[in-house]
Amino acid sequence: MADLASSCKDKLAYFRIKELKDILHQLGLPKQGKKQDLIDRVLALLSDEQGQRHHGWGRKNSFTKEAVAKIVDDIYRKMQIQSAPDLATRSHTGSDLFRPKDEVNDSFQPQPVTKVRCICDSKLLNDNMIQCEDDRCHVWQHMSCVLVPDKPTEGVGPEVPPHFYCELCRLSRADPFWVTTGNPLPPLKFMSSGVANDGTSVLQTVEKTFQLSRADRETVQRSEYDLQVWCILMNDKVQFRMQWPQYAELEVNGFAVRVVTRPGSQLLGINGRDDGPLITTCSREGTNKICLRRVDNRTFCFGVRVAKRRSVPQVLNLVPKEAEGESFEDALTRVRRCLGGGDTAENADSDSDLEVVTESVTVNLRCPNSGSRMKTAGRFKPCIHMGCFDLDTFVELNQRSRKWQCPICLKNYSLENLMIDPYFNRITSL
Ligand SMILES: [Zn+2]
Ligand SMILES: [Zn+2]
Ligand SMILES: [Zn+2]
Ligand SMILES: [Zn+2]
């Protein structure tokens, strides 16, 4: 039995919150808590003594230890397939990943192959880590650093978002017309350091320096590059956008730089977007000094990056080509589902289906943005409505608005969710 528990424990060490919740869901156990709580909850089922101590979950549960071990194992296998590059670098098969207990000393704790990069600047692992979902990033961060409760004064802990992205991946999704090529001032947490006795916010200042080499200076002066200061609100409900604090004042090497055009007291609305000021002209080779002031108690993160511009055609190019995206058959199924005309196979070629479609076509062939007929029909993958918009017009508009918001349902997305709708595209090309 001890073997079962210890091999599960080793595997659980590799799991993200997502996998742990998946297991707890399968076991019918509560899914809330910190990462270590979730692990303990699973382990409790595998150990006799602990089973009773852990709030009795182990007893109420009807799963045998073997059944629990199998669920853990299945998810572990699935993970290996999905994130092969992460785990495969350690070994080629799952089985020799974990050496038998007698070959290692007792203090051996398998550590996941991890890249830790956190806004606290510490690279140490602790028991409560969260991983960025971006496929090219996958960094781990300290939950206590990056998850900020909405109402800290009420003692309500932060929510673990279903899709977690680190601040740099949020930044790159906020505006795909910029590509980060360097971070002279890496992401820095700007926390609330105080509230006056009467409960009002006080002015807070953070001063930092960052280095620019001669090569950096030459790069940022090229026309397609710039040096940019960015800032995001850690627990922003709109995940992919910049946001500056209230009464933000920025100084770079003694030059005042305007960060937002709205009045200092005005909060950014759900449909608003802030931008990152370009500071190439006030930067210099060597040491640069940056100073940010604000009167705002929320937790922000800011940094300075070297960014390269993407043109409209380059951004359009990031949207999968029609042939690489959704298949026509899948699109058809989706449209049928939207129309509520459930049954498909039978009506596939029937006139009734076509009639229903024809009805909505008159409305939807006009792009809600341009008002004219769509050339290429675009949509956001997660949207459940039929309506589309003209892809080129949409991308062009977003070069300025940076909203990446569906013009039909107004939900906020990012470029990676944008696709060509093969169904509407076929109709528009008729
Ligand atoms: Zn941290
Ligand atoms: Zn996800
Ligand atoms: Zn990331
Ligand atoms: Zn939508």
UniProtKB/TrEMBL annotation:
Highest taxon, organism lineage: Eukaryota
Keyword Transferase: yes
GO biological process: protein sumoylation
Cellular compartments annotated: Nucleus
Annotated Gene Ontology cellular component terms: chromatin; nucleus
Entry keyword Metal-binding: yes
Annotated family: Belongs to the PIAS family.
UniProt-recorded name of the protein: E3 SUMO-protein ligase SIZ1
